[in-house]
Amino acid sequence: MTVIxxxxxxSPLFGSVLHCDFRRKKISVNFKALSRNEYCVKSSAxxxxxxxxxTETDVIVVGAGVAGAALAYALGRDGREVHIIERDLTEPDxxxxxxxxxxxxxxxxxxxxxxxxxxxxxxxxxxCAFFKDGKDVKIPYPLENFPSDVSGRSFHNGRFIQNMRHxxxxxxxxxxxQGAVTSLVSEKGIIRGVRYKTxxxxxxxxxxxxxxxxxxxxxxxxxSLCTSQVESCSWFVGLVLENCxxxxxxxxxxxxxxLSSIICFPISSREVRCIVDVPRQKVPSxxxxxxxxxxxxxxxxxxxxxxxxxxIAAIDKRNIxxxxxxxxPANPHPSPGALLIGDAFNIRHPITGGGMTVALSDxxxxxxxxRSVHDLSDTPTLCKYLDSFYILRKPLASTINTLAAALYKxxxxxxxxxxxxxxxxxxxxxxxxxIFANGCRWNYIPxxxxxxx
Length: 453
Fold this sequence. Notes:
alpha/beta
């Protein structure tokens, strides 16, 4: 009999990724009319950085979500002049991006952004628990060799993003502006900047030697920078359960349920996020209470008993959110002067909560790569280093993406007897505990570099 290490399936619970792509018109610009002034600043990394000739900005960042705000702060700390443009600076309201796995938290420390989790009632997440047919097993994260504050974190996504935006904007060389980027600006095949509309509808153009697009999975810029192979996986149906206690405090809960799998974790001291993953072909309509009926009759009986009343109360409030889940492999078109990061670049099924881990890890890699480029306007040199970014990111990103896909397949509902047996075997394996659970608690933790390195 072949024995399969369950860690191969469980590792993605602690990290993940996403990727998207839409067509973009490019605009040619006469750069001879630009001034040729050059200037230098000293970075926090001790480098003398030569800024781009004829520009006031070193890097344009499109999007101020988790990835964009973190990148702007990281490059700003290194002395780069950063112009970050975000379509909507009001607090986001989403049902994903609420669980940061321990590996992502370690990257947040490396970037000096861990304090963005303060004052938002973020909750520590210490591991995961699995439920199947009335049985359960609890698996803690392997954090014995890390400082006591290192764990996963869960929170309201919008609160976290607003803190990150604020922290990035406190740097004097980071300019955060609300505006809708409409197109990339190119000259002779090199991306030179972006054209955008301000909050007041004024059309402007911003130039920089490097433009980083990280405006999310529905980016309208990424088609010209990558090959889009988006796969629609399932639907997430999200509710907030109030004033209830999880079976295991500060743990993520995963329920192998009939027809739909269920995920629950705390997002504040009094709220639990509950997500029901529904197969794409079976998602009920929100019209005429069909979704509410489905949740009450099919899902509610399979919810852990401690959460049942709160689950029914959340349904009755009719504050039910739905979101299509998608996956997209990272398949970039090397584009001089431009780069993709975050969900605009690479997506995996969000059931594992690893998207922010990959995005923050990519930012650490990119920051370190760019520290070797003193003059961003030296396009050949910049391209060489950006090529190395794609290579250096692969070990972590590819591992998390592959394992996320494997785990989702293991979790997804199927009438296939063989797949049902695989689910049961996976649960039974974890239930053995000890060395059997050790291999699947989390066998990919990014290297810990220390606080704010």
